DNA sequence: TTGTAAGCGTTATCAC
DNA sequence: GTGATAACGCTTACAA
């Protein structure tokens, strides 16, 4: 079958462990031996079996990032930053995508065991982690963009987040202060889970409440399907417009949805912001390159990524866990306008 | 340390192999035994070690997709389709991202060995595969969106592609037939490699040639940086506009670049398509949701994915390799206009 | 400097 | 139905 370390040993006329030593750089071997071994390796196109390796190895200097839906453009900057910072510290990074709901911790445990990880970062998804989860993991764990329930002992994990509720309060309040009263809301209700989106929705409701504007379910679209974010935003916005002729603004709980919503508005022959103001959330590139550029609540993605990796390495060195809440920035790019200026 | 199959065997009072059998569903075990084993598994939170598993296992019913830069939105539809089709056939799918240049085949070999794959799909990247590569792999291999050099024996691999040169000829020719003569070109020159982008560039040049329009290097922007596609398109377009006041159209060799280019145009106070016509390539969602929606050469992503997976399973059943070239569709959405209509 | 041999945790092949 | 036991390919003491 496949060529193994034995074949290399045989061909180069040395012992198995010598081959292993040469390949791993550990221990010493005479230059001549090295030559012979390497020659055999190339001749037979030998590739070491990682399973056999990991089975024995203890320390791997590897950490992992588990991303819930890696295709989310918001995560890309973060991942990139984490990759760089990890390399810089001389560690390897294992990047893994997760789709399955609620299974992320199982996959995390699996990964920790398989790869002998010394730490792990979990990003995306919901807030459904339990104390057991962290205990089972066995290695330091940092949650990024999500956290665990307040009941969970905060010494078991670190977290780097924003205050989703407060930030979307900020977005909604901004529109209200601009004079808007009929404000649509588009968000992704993912099952009954507590997610960043549901928190943002709470912020939307609180902003209405505190400003004395009645909450109107007709202004909310959150029917969850498996469509893409763009398509989702587009369809939800179409619905909202059909149901609410008096709507003057919309807050979308993700920029991709905001883009879809914007397209829906423009395709109806309406203008942004003159007819309807639009604000998104996250701060991804598309919102910036869209025309018109869309206002958004921009998360400090790079800083968050840096903090996450810092927190992880701190934990790996035995330091305490940390829980950072960053502040997001309301970027005004012109897709929202005062109601008095509406035509 | 970690809890192993032995612990489960001990706790549940059965033999190791019985535990293995219960967990794998293979072989038989009495309901009572099953109960006991499962109870122990849950109590100790046992997770089987994949390395040890893969070391022994022969048939895994698993195939893999190696994607060169998984963040490329064009690949996402394809990956999704491949995932579904794979599950449908009762196989597992291993999705893996590759960044390293030219190392994709090494990673592929590694993956094949580690996971005992029975087949692999490679998407993205360049055309640099050799005969040796496929021979070393040891399992059926399908190239998706790229192919190997013509010198490589076509019985060694399957491929599903479009004719990048011809398709971008189509795009450029379309603009020329609309009356454009000063047509900008934005593409990503990735080292000296032969990539879809370089082929598309060839198509651009041939269209000019066959229509008797002189090729002007000033109209080409391909300075390769590590920027994102949007940023890249934006900056390249800024350059082009600065250098060519008489440019009336631009062809971008990827939709993300086209979006960046469009933003650059609009941010200069120019209009699309009245002042400058824009056409992209690939057919991703953002181009559709952009405002104005962008014309593009749309690749039949789903069909291509289906063909790739079909080809792979065919090979796995001992059938011959296949080499399919799909035709892309020129989508006219209004971002290109006849020159006579230019204001 | 090099080789021998004992595991790593699992599965597969047998006997029972 | 179930339980020993021999691999799987490698790393790592330890011995030479």
What does this structure look like?
- 2 copies of one chain form a homodimer.
- Chain A is an alpha/beta fold and 343 residues long.
- Chain A contains 13 helices and 12 strands.
- Chain A has helices spanning 5-12, 16-24, 31-44, 50-56, 73-88, 104-115, 131-137, 164-177, 196-210, 229-243, 255-267, 285-289, 301-316; strands at 62-68, 92-98, 119-123, 141-144, 158-162, 183-186, 220-221, 249-252, 277-282, 295-298, 323-326, 329-331.
- The first copy, chain A, has a 6-stranded parallel beta sheet, with helices on both faces. Chain A has a 6-stranded mixed beta sheet with strand order 7-6-8-9-10-12, sandwiched between helices.
- In chain A, helix 11 (255-267) links the parallel strand 8 and strand 9.
- In chain A, helix 1 (5-12) crosses helix 2.
- The longest helix of chain A has 16 residues, at 73-88.
- Chains A and B meet through helix 4, helix 6, helix 10, helix 11 and helix 12 of A and helix 4, helix 6, helix 10, helix 11 and helix 12 of B.
- Chain B binds a DNA duplex (16 and 16 nucleotides) through residues 2, 4-6, 9, 14-18, 20-21, 24, 26-30, 33, 48-58.
- Chains A, B: Residues 3-57 form the HTH lacI-type domain.
- Chains A, B: GO terms for molecular function: DNA-binding transcription factor activity; transcription cis-regulatory region binding.
- Chains A, B: Keywords: DNA-binding, Repressor, Transcription, Transcription regulation.
- Chains A, B: It comes from Lacrimispora xylanisolvens.
